[in-house]
Amino acid sequence: MKTQFNGMGMCLGNLSQLSNAVTRSISAENPTGGKGIGGMATEGTCTIYSRELGRGWKISPSIHVAGKTSAVLADITGPGVIQHIWMTVDPHAWRQLILRIYWDHEDTPSVEVPIGDFFANGWCVRCNVNSFPLAVNPAGGFNCYWEMPFRQHARITIENLSSDLIRGFTYQISYTLTEVPDEHAYFHAQWRRSNPVKTMQVHTILDGVGGLGHYVGTYLAWGVHNNGWWGEGEIKFYLDGDQEWPTICGTGTEDYFGGAWGFELPQGQYCIFSSAFQGVPQLIQPDGLYQSQQRFGMYRWHVMDPIRFQQDIRVTIQDLGWRSTMEGQMRFATRQDDIASTAFWYQTEPHGPFPALPGLNDLEVI
Fold it and tell me: Domains of the chain, with CATH numbers?
């Protein structure tokens, strides 16, 4: 049967609709995603455990990534669309492993993010996330549902920046081979860090983007370096030639992430939450010993309200809190916190150059 539906844009409303799209999935048990060749390995990370069972019994469910090397997770000839990515690895590796995705044989990646930050877990401490495009489930199960179309080719790699062997990296990448209409753009994600944010300056979440597209999400790993409330800063979106003044200006950090009044409960405590499009699912508190600072993980997905740009976009956030005087009068004060951001957006190719990713020491959670 020849159908019109290409299998993209999946939702409950079209789940019963037939399509000629072809489903495939890549894992360590089927590294190419080829039809009818899964589970054929005779050697793998679990060879010793399946020695009494033989071929087909979970011989190669994962890979080891040697120090200072990269592994190709997926190499797919299109057209098609990646629909689900699942991964897991020890939390100590979440800032050591860099996830990169390349579209249509491009030389530079459209996605370049430490794996933990990509999945809204930037602090190398497990945190569950219950959102629409990303879900992180016990214990450290990373799930991504961002739709990622490509026309010619898709390549996904993971780089181990450390000198250590990282064992048991496990993954599953599910995709469909289908025609991709012209109006579908390419998925992008970029990581940046200011540690600390310089006095009287802002943290830049995204810059250097040119073309037609729309911004779809922000994740922040925010480490507090000062006492007092830290979240008065405004997020600003500079669109299509904006210079000094933005087109979209937020009213405060907690407001942008869907909360209010400092995310505080009446008892004077922070309230973590995780919802479909907004959340502060992670709060790491001082323990009186080695954990000396408060740290937060926050996400905002613009799924129902994408921020569209025709030519370019720049996104910044202020690091702003309060200061009291001897007279007890409050006033705003800039801060010097540790802010690591991941920006998510779609755009036409080619994309602009990304800033150079820092080395392992500057990626490290401090």
Answer: 1-184 (2.60.120.1390), 186-347 (2.60.120.1390)
